[in-house]
Write a structure and sequence with these properties.
Layout: E1 2-6, E2 16-19, E3 29-38, H1 42-48, E4 61-62, E5 66-74, E6 86-90, E7 102-106, E8 110-112, H2 119-123, H3 125-139, H4 150-159, H5 163-179
Helix pairs in contact: 3-5
């Protein structure tokens, strides 16, 4: 399969397309045929080596943190997902590699793609959803039915007129709340 990799850390986004082996899912993993992979600020940071102190990846490194696609194979212990399910994920920090044709990912790091979103739209959800969740609930300590300053209420009202965004936020928050200690999406 093809994968976008770096062979050394660099400042110029020197990424090459390599032919690598297709991953095989472990017992608790699924194999996802990647339809879309989102590019976010972590990718250039990983490319430059800015994250080495937190996560020292082995090289060559397949870049990519967020994906959406279809499950093509499941591990022996997987019961919540099946072949053909469309899913999206913020790949675990220890196992990135979304800029590839396939990725093997643990079931606690994926979720079903919302029915009213395309795979393209779903690929953009994970990191932005996690960032929104962390801002609201970890930094601002938002609580249900609480009274907030005017600026917080104004922020909340931005998504109210758009029902699609409200459903999307609810889906992201549900996923993030189950995985916030791991910084990945889970069920």
């Amino acid at each position: 399969m093809k994968a976008a990799q770096i062979e050394k850390y660099n400042q110029t986004l020197d990424v090459t397309i390599q032919e690598i082996d297709c991953p095989q899912p472990l017992a608790n993993e699924v194999l996802v045929k990647v339809a879309y992979a989102a590019v976010n600020p972590l990718d250039p940071m990983n490319n430059r080596g800015d994250t080495k102190l937190m996560q020292n990846y082995a090289l060559p490194l397949t870049l990519g943190n967020e994906i959406a696609g279809e499950i093509t194979a499941i591990g022996t212990d997987v019961t919540d997902f099946k072949v053909g399910d469309q899913v999206y994920a913020r790949l675990p920090l220890a196992k990135i590699g979304g800029f590839a044709e396939y990725v093997a990912v643990a079931t606690d790091a994926i979720w079903y793609t919302p029915k009213d979103l395309s795979l393209r739209e779903a690929a953009a959800i994970p990191l932005t959803g996690l960032t929104a969740y962390q801002g609201l609930f970890e930094e601002l300590a938002a609580q249900p039915n609480a009274v907030y300053p005017w600026w917080f209420r104004r922020f909340r009202s931005i998504s109210r007129p758009n029902r699609k965004i409200t459903r999307l936020n609810r889906d992201c928050f549900r996923q993030c709340s189950r995985a916030r200690s791991h910084f990945e999406f889970g069920r």
